[in-house]
Amino acid sequence: MDKAELENLLNFKVLEFKKTYKPPFAYISFKSDRNKCFFMKYSKEPTNMFICEKHGLDEFAQVRDLKIPEVLLANNYCIVMDAMNLSYETLGLDRLVKSLRLLHNVQDKEFGFYEDNFIGQSTQSNTKRTKNWGEFFWVSRLLYKFDQLNEKESLTSEFKSEFLKLETVIYRVLGEVKAEPRLVHGDLWSGNLLPLKGGAISFVDPAVYYGHFEVDLAMTQLFGGVGDVYSFYVAHYSLDAGWELRMKIYNLYHLLNHAVIFSGSYVQQSLYQIKQISTLA
């Protein structure tokens, strides 16, 4: 998409235009003739990822005190939203945890979400809704990703056997925690946390659903760059006993998802995590 096409799409004059490309999307930063800055993600191929992203941000907008980018347009080819006023200061754990607690205060009656959506470039299953957290996490998170991975890769008999042993472990361990359906980001690594000027934090690229709030805490620890959220959380609030094992269970979902998207070493990392969970449980 060039500047003229963008102006035609949005029906206003574009004064500044900067485009970068990181497969599978193009990213465009631009300023309107009203001196307002915007950010756009664009795909040459149709996808409903952008509409799902808007729905996730709309769900976040229930929380008045969260800074969420306003979406100007979302369709099968692009999403256009307000550009946030970014800060390059270190992400503050105090502000992050307070923002997460605001998000996690939003409740629903069942785990899941009203539509399936995406986590990264891979689909996420949400619509098999249930009040049983162990059932939801096994069926709609771990087993769903395992089936995707098994279809893509020639998984070893060891991998399949070790994974399927987890079913009873997941139901037991997640049945022991008092989990309530809370609004979660779902893909909370450092790249989806934007420190803003003034000290606020914005959450972007959501993989929204209603789940146990600890899934967000767990994800912050998987790839680093966020800080020791758990130590801060435990020092200021409280977590049910057994959170260390639950962190490994929740992050297995993300390792399996990365194995689906990227293959390579993530398959072996997933197997190692599976064995660790079985041993610790």
Brief summary of the model shown:
By secondary structure, this protein is of the alpha+beta class. The chain is built from ten helices and eleven strands.
Features:
281 residues, alpha+beta, Phosphorylase Kinase, domain 1, Aminoglycoside 3'-phosphotransferase, Chain: A, domain 2, five-stranded antiparallel beta sheet, 11 strands
List the helices and strands and how they pair.
Layout: H1 3-10, E1 14-22, E2 25-32, E3 37-42, H2 49-60, E4 71-74, E5 78-82, H3 93-104, E6 117-119, E7 122-124, H4 133-152, H5 157-164, H6 166-175, E8 182-184, E9 193-195, E10 201-203, E11 209-211, H7 214-222, H8 229-236, H9 243-262, H10 265-280
Antiparallel strand pairs: 1-2, 2-3, 3-5, 4-5, 6-7, 8-11, 9-10
Helix pairs in contact: 4-6, 4-9, 7-9, 9-10
For the biggest sheet, the summary is:
5 strands, antiparallel
Q: How much helical structure, as a percent, in the residues? A: 40-55%
The termini sit apart by 52 Å
Instruction: Tally the structural domains.
Output: 2
So, the CATH homologous superfamily of the largest domain?
Aminoglycoside phosphotransferase (APH), C-terminal lobe
The poorly predicted ranges are: none
The residue-averaged pLDDT reads 94
| General shape | globular
The order of strands across the largest sheet is 1-2-3-5-4
According to DSSP, the number of beta strands is 11
What's the CATH topology name of the largest domain?
Aminoglycoside 3'-phosphotransferase, Chain: A, domain 2
Taking all Cα atoms into account, the compactness measure Rg is 20 Å
Structural class: alpha+beta
Element pattern in H and E: HEEEHEEHEEHHHEEEEHHHH
Strand content: 15-25%
Can you identify the CATH class of the largest domain?
Alpha Beta
